[in-house]
Amino acid sequence: MAKGPRPGDGPVAASEGRRVGMLVAEAQEALAHARSEEAVLRIVADHACRMLQARLTAVWTPDMYGWLVPRATAGAAEEYAQGLKLSVRKDRPSGAGMAGVAFREGRIIALNTEGAPPPGMLPQRWEAWRRRAAVHGFRQVLILPLRYRGTSLGLLNCYLAGSGPPPPAAWEAVRGLAITATAALHGMYLREETMLTLAAAREARDAETLEHALRVSLYAERLAEELGVLDPEQLERIRWGALLHDVGKIGLPDEVLKQAGKLNAAAWRVVRRHPGTGYELIRRLEFLGEARQVVLAHHERFDGTGYPRGLRGEAIPLGARIFAVVDTLDAITSDRPYRPAADYLRAAAEIRQGAGTQLDPAAVAAFERIREEQWTRLRRRARQGFFSRLRPRRCR
Ligand SMILES: [Fe+2]
Ligand SMILES: [Fe+2]
Questions:
Q1: 52/171 Cα distance (integer angstroms)
Q2: Is 331 helix (H, G, I), strand (E, B) or coil?
Q3: Residues 102, 36 within the same domain
Q4: Which of the four pLDDT bands, split at 50, 70 and 90, describes residue 32?
Q5: pLDDT tens profile 132-168
Q6: What is the distance in A from the centroid of ligand 1 to the CA of 247?
Q7: pLDDT in tens, 235-246
Q8: Interval 317-353: pLDDT, tens
Q9: Residue 299 CA: which ligand is closest?
Q10: Which of 16, 17, 43, 346 is 20 to 30 Å from 207 at the Cα level?
């Protein structure tokens, strides 16, 4: 039997369908071009907000301590999410507490200020949340986990002014958007983990640590920004190149690795092969782009006396010229088996001295514009190690 007309059918519903349809197409296209995690999260927040005409949408992802933090927001009530952290742990309920449930169990949860408090929530907490919601002009929040193959990567929370169910077409569109975006994020995180696994494999071969690789990768990214690199993809590749610079050392024979003191000529010849070995190792990883050239060129010198190809000046890929500066910084400011670490000023002096011979003068000038505290902060971040977004350490 044919269905009769329902309220909501007709020209209004049709134009609403068109509006949502256009937003879906726009979001798909934006996601297809998104090249960084930040970009994906922003597209999700923006488009979900417009699809649902929400007061606020916020995308939350876990930090390394097991808190969900807002990474992208959209809408008039953005202030609500500022500075807010949600716990994903069972033993640390906070906020409405339901975010953790949605994240852990992968369930969509709707909270309505006009309904009853969710089971297990203290009445005072529920009242406090309702008051805050009223201040920011929303009557319900839809909590949508960003799930991929059984793993929650984050949450998309949609805060709506109305207390009724959202228009079905818009809600379906938001769910579809969440699925596509989550798949894209998963791919990005997986690539990141692949890089770290390679960097860690290399750590097993000699004393240079994964922490050194993490430090120079963060330093390189910062220096690239200072040099005016804005493209997130290029930044990422410079970071990966620095992270993997010595991956070719995996192939060094034990005799060479264990040789103490100055290398003899034969051993030195073998060591000089490691940039090429590294390049060969990662050559097929198309997504690494220029990072592969950074690995191959990380021992080139600006004056053309480096190896393996003796490239000179700007013939050396930018990422490798950047790497040379930050590797010098890290070498001098870290303990080595044969000498203790020196301070930043000593490193800065040495870097200045290397301008034009070993180092690119433009990269050195950019280095000097960055304050010491910034390097210290990045150093601290590297010490925290790698935090897997696919397996947040302390979230369970
Ligand atoms: Fe090297
Ligand atoms: Fe190194």
A1: 7
A2: helix
A3: yes
A4: very high
A5: 999 999 999 999 999 998 899 999 999 999 999 999 9
A6: 8
A7: 999 999 999 999
A8: 999 999 999 999 999 999 887 788 999 999 999 999 9
A9: 1
A10: 346
d(CA 91, CA 88): 9
364 Cα: distance to centroid of ligand 1 (angstroms):
20
Please compute the mean of the pLDDT values over residues 115-120 and round it to a whole number. Answer: 84
Burial of 342 per CB tally in 10 Å (0-12, 13-18, 19+): middle
DSSP label at residue 276: H
| 143 beta partners | 109, 157
Same domain, 232 and 131: no
Tokens of 230: 């804005």
Residue 382 CA to ligand 1 centre (angstroms): 19
**The model scores a pTM over 0.85:** no
Which residues are within 5 Å of ligand 1 (an ion), measured at CB?
246
Centre of ligand 2 to C-alpha 199, Å, is 11
Distance CA 178, CA 131 (A): 29
Q: Give one word for 53, left, alpha or beta, with left for phi > 0 and alpha for psi -120 to 50.
A: left
CATH code of 233's domain: 1.10.3210.10
The 10s digit of each residue's pLDDT in 203-229 is: 777 667 788 999 999 999 999 999 999
Q: How close is the Cα of 187 to the center of ligand 1, in Å?
A: 29
Nearest ligand for residue 212 CA = 2
How far apart are the C-alpha atoms of 288 and 306, rounded to whole Å? 23
As a whole number of angstroms, the distance between CA 319 and CA 241 comes to 7
Please state, in angstroms and rounded to a whole number, the distance separating the CA atoms of residues 232 and 223. 14
Please name the amino acid found at residue 318. L
Domain housing 91 = 17-188
Taking phi first (over 0 means left), then psi (-120 to 50 degrees means alpha), and beta for anything else, what does residue 317 get? Answer: beta
Q: Strand 67-74 and strand 86-87: pairing?
A: antiparallel
Q: Ligand 1 mean position to 271 CA, how many Å?
A: 8
C-alpha 331 – ligand 2 centre gap (Å): 8
DSSP per-residue string spanning 356-372: TTTB-HHHHHHHHHS-H
- Nearest ligand, measured from the Cα of 276: 1
Ligand that comes closest to the CA of residue 320:
1
